[in-house]
Design brief:
- It comes from Streptomyces xiangluensis.
- This is Endonuclease/exonuclease/phosphatase family protein.
- InterPro entries: Endo/exonu/phosph_ase_sf, Endo/exonuclease/phosphatase.
- Residues 129-331 form the Endonuclease/exonuclease/phosphatase domain.
- This protein is α+β, with helices and mostly antiparallel strands and 345 residues long.
- The protein has ten helices and 14 strands.
- The protein has a six-stranded mixed beta sheet with strand order 3-4-2-1-14-13. Strands 5-6-7-10-12-11 form a six-stranded mixed beta sheet.
- β6 and β7 (218-226) form a beta hairpin.
- The chain starts with 21 loop residues before the first helix and ends in a 6-residue tail after the last strand.
Length: 345
């Protein structure tokens, strides 16, 4: 015999669903939890301190271990603490901490929003590239071919050794008709070079040079520089005194440039945020900041954390800027395309 099954309705009518919406239950829980504003005070203080470190980064002194410059070198990475604090605030069920975390989040976006979005364009008439090839590079010819394959019209190389220079010259000869090596830096170009000279950056040996590139779009003063390395030592902090002295000397040389259009290509061992490079960065702008996509970190190549390799320009318009694939160096090569020719009114 067939049996009919039916749901009990408790009186013939369908009983309303008594389950409250999840958001409503959460709001009720929040209102009933009187400690929600008292919990997480330590997290809230940490969030505010993080915001202050970012917004006041230029006020942090360099007197002790150059901490100010160290902080500015890795300034974007302070943002990784924001989701961490947010997660801890959720675990603590702290409204105070959650609101406080908004402060460093807003500061970080305000500082780096120009690097978050893609600003790359099209056009331009000159492509430049720079690469610290690493003195210990085991495959200099492969590195040279990789940089040449970028299509750059002008290439700057840093950390050249006496034994490796002939290898780079041979590997790049087919692509670049003109070149000059000064000390440990060199410049290769598809267009004629003139007025080539070393630039004194107060080191006692040559790690910077200048040349005039005569391209179809006009003349461009090109500086190539490899500023001294910096170190982070427990007993001494962020040791960058020689780098800072050389940056000032390089900035002084660029300030006397007679050509209206100039570019600086090289390893500056510092980021655009580092106040110790102001002698240079106050005169020129970064192609990555003006026409790149993202932060364009270039070092270390295995896990890039900072953009210490730079392409800076003045008097020309950056069109696009990017990072090239890894070679045999501990740095990534970087490139940019600029508009050199005057467009007229």
């Amino acid at each position: 015999m067939a049996q009919a099954y039916k749901t009990e309705t408790g009186g013939g009518g369908q009983e309303p669903d008594r389950r409250e919406p999840r958001l409503q239950r959460l709001l009720v829980s929040v209102r009933s939890d009187r400690r929600i504003w008292r919990r997480g005070i330590v997290l809230a203080v940490c969030a505010v301190l993080l915001a202050l470190v970012m917004v006041l980064h230029s006020q942090i002194p360099n007197a002790v271990g150059n901490f100010g410059s160290l902080n500015e070198t890795f300034l974007p990475w302070l943002g990784v603490f924001i989701p961490l604090l947010f997660g801890l605030a959720l675990l603590r069920r702290s409204a105070t901490a959650l609101i406080a975390v908004l402060v460093p989040a807003i500061v970080w976006v305000n500082l780096f929003d120009s690097l978050i979005f893609d600003k790359t364009g099209s056009g331009g008439d000159l492509t430049v590239a720079t690469h610290n090839v690493n003195a210990d590079n085991a495959n200099p010819s492969g590195t040279a071919r990789a940089v040449a394959a970028s299509g750059a019209d002008v290439v700057a190389l840093e950390e050249l050794t006496e034994t490796a220079v002939p290898v780079y010259e041979k590997a790049l000869a087919a692509t670049y008709k003109y070149h000059s090596v000064q000390g440990t830096v060199g410049l290769w170009s598809k267009y004629p070079l003139s007025d080539v000279a070393a630039v004194d950056i107060k080191l006692g040996w040559t790690r910077a040079m200048r040349a005039t590139v005569t391209a179809p779009g006009g003349q461009l003063a090109v500086y190539v520089a490899h500023l001294p390395s910096v170190r982070v030592k427990i007993e001494a902090g962020f040791t960058a005194r020689q780098r800072d002295k050389s940056a000032d000397a390089l900035g002084e040389a660029i300030s006397h440039e007679k050509l209206s259009k100039a570019a600086l290509l090289g390893d500056l061992n510092g980021t655009m945020n580092d106040r110790s490079l102001n002698a240079v960065t106050a005169q020129m702008r970064s192609t990555q900041g003006a026409a790149g996509s993202g932060f364009g970190f270039s070092w270390p190549a295995s896990f890039p954390m900072a953009r210490i390799d730079q392409i800076l320009v003045k008097g020309v318009e950056p069109v696009t800027s990017w990072t090239l694939p890894e070679t045999g160096s501990d740095h990534l090569p970087i490139a940019a395309r600029v508009k050199l020719a005057d467009t007229g009114s």
